[in-house]
Amino acid sequence: MSTKKVSSDSPSKSPNTCSSPSTLSSPSPIPNQLVIGNSMEEVWNDINLASLHEQPGNYTGSNANANTNDHVLHGMTFQDLLATSSNKDTPTRVASKEPSSGGGNNLLKNSLGPSPATMLNLNYGKRPQENGDVSGGDRRHERMIKNRESAARSRARKQAYTTELELKVAMLGEENAKLRKQQERFLAAAPAQPPKKHTLYRTSTAPF
Amino acid sequence: MPRDREPLSVGRVIGDVLDPFTRSISLRVNYNSREVNNGCELKPSHVVSQPRVDIGGDDLRTFYTLVMVDPDAPSPSNPNLREYLHWLVTDIPATTGASFGQEVVCYESPRPSAGIHRFVFVLFRQLGRQTVYAPGWRQNFKTRDFAELYNLGSPVAAVYFNCQRESGSGGRRR
Fold it and tell me: What are the start and end residues of every segment in region (Disordered) (chain A) (predicted)?
């Protein structure tokens, strides 16, 4: 088993270059400081195991009360999760259950019982849930629909403007060509006419 | 041009405000020498005063009605005041402009607060000189119903522009 020390130069953006994260359900990057001393694949395998062990009823709001590893940190935001994972206290509390080393790993595995994607989606940009999953999911769903509609409107706007410009261009081009031809004809015809006389002259208008 | 590529259709003016129609009269709308082309964007400061409207046709004895509405009031994602009537001018003789007609509802400057709104000008041919009554309020105006009420038939021309609040940053990247 190779021990990969992943560098933490750009924690939130650098992709994990380890062996295929086949169990990864969302593209959200996990900051590299957490994965210290273990290969990525092992961590992900352990996460899957943890989710199998996890019992749905055991939700606690705060990390302070968690003394078994099956508790899911439902009330915390992901940012809190990351903050506490670097906390020195947590490794000792959760170190007992899982055999693999590294306190940060354990916290990560056990807390991310449900897939990281759901965790992020549920808590991203919101206060901790007060009334459970259902309304949060609905709001998210509504927001998604609204965003889709807005995107569709934006695309329609863009396309309408572009088409209109193309029409305009075509029309102006035709008009231009027509006017040029007319201009040519006028220029060609002008010298053939007699120059205008600026003198008074008699014309016959009356019958007598 | 196939109907579904028409800017008025793509921009959903046909659909939200009007039914499909055939353009037969020219309609030119100019705000201080800025001509309104379908889907172009104008700022509220550009459209404060009523535009110059020139219509085509050939017979001075034919009269036209001009309607200007905002189908995206108060916001395009929640247009519960659709359509908001901004201007209504009737008895415009062919080949002339809106200033020759009867202003039934005076021009109200567009001041969108949320989102990017469409502002639509629609031209109808009148059967004769007719008395048009102003609606009681500007919001929830229905151009389709209005046309039916006054026997205006299908529109003969339409054009629209987009407008968002002065400091807005949405829409086409400039």
Answer: 1-32, 85-141, 189-208
